[in-house]
Amino acid sequence: MASPLEQFTIKPILDLKIGETDISFTNSSLWMTITAVVLIVFVVVGTQRRAMVPGRWQSAVEYFHQVVADMVRDNVGAQGRRYFPFIFSLFMFILFGNLLGLLPKSFAFTSHLAVTFAIAAFIFVGVTIIGIVTHGLKFFTLFFPHGAPLVTAPLLIPIEIISYFSRPVSLSVRLFANMTVGHVLLKVIAGGVVALGSFFVLPGLLPLALLVAITLLEVMIAVIQAYVFAILTCVYLNDALHLH
User: Does residue 1 sit within a domain?
Assistant: First the structure.
């Protein structure tokens, strides 16, 4: 039986190098591309007709649009409208990546810390730049809570700085850890179903039922983790815009 961790192995599909830098097209790159293509087709086809009475496909796209629009409005406010396209793309890309990663023979790229940290670091740098451009040097007052006694500055400022710079770490690890653990659990239980089912039919039914239940749970976790990633991005953006 293959190791449960084997499913996370990144394998080159097309070997490419620029000097000493390896830029090979891997299975991770392939499934990122597939996710992007599926997402584009989903949105473009769903919004192509724009019927007054929407069909199922258009309704699905409009539902996700409304979910993200409400998220941005509630957590960022009116100033967040200009950032809606990015938040919507971020949410949908992670959501589709999580869900497609549950398919047999697929590759869950969101279960790799390198991928989730790259996304989180991009958000962190972008939000920081937005805050500095919006407020100038006043942005750095974010590291000292409003109304706190000045004497507490030597203690509070280092804590706030550490907390701020830990954002991309916590944001990336949360998604990576949840997806990795879920896929390992599915692999282990699936192996148990095959092993027991090969010898005893009835004993194999219990692991099978458990596998179905955990798969449904993983679908729910995939949705929740995409939502959490997007909503935390909105919270960080709100801090940068309003210095809360």
Answer: no
How long, in residues, is the chain?
244
Q: What is the pTM of this model?
A: 0.88
Provide the residue type at 227 as one letter. Answer: Y
Residue pLDDT, tens place only, 7-36: 778 888 888 877 778 788 888 999 999 999
Q: Look at residue 78 and tell me if it is in a domain.
A: yes
| Residue 215 confidence class, pLDDT cut points 50, 70, 90 | confident
Pairwise CA distance, residues 95 & 81, whole Å: 21
Domain assignment present for residue 77? The answer is yes
Burial 158-194 (b: 16+ CB within 10 A, else e): eebeeeeeebbeebbebbbebbbebbbbbbebbbbbe
Place 197 in a pLDDT band, splitting at 50, 70 and 90: low
Domain of 138? Answer: 6-242
Which one-letter amino acid corresponds to residue 197?
G
Give every CB contact of residue 14 below 8 A, 6+ residues apart in sequence: 24, 25
Task: Evaluate whether residue 124 is within a structural domain.
Answer: yes
d(C-alpha 130, C-alpha 124), whole Å? 10
Look at residues 227, 98, 233, 219 and name the one whose alpha carbon lies nearest to residue 171: 233
Cα–Cα distance measured from residue 88 to residue 99, given in angstroms and rounded to the nearest whole number = 16
Average pLDDT over every residue of 83-99: 95
Give the E-state strand segments of 5-129 in sequence order: 12-14, 17-18, 21-22, 25-26
Count of structural domains, the chain: 1
Distance CA 23, CA 25 (A): 7
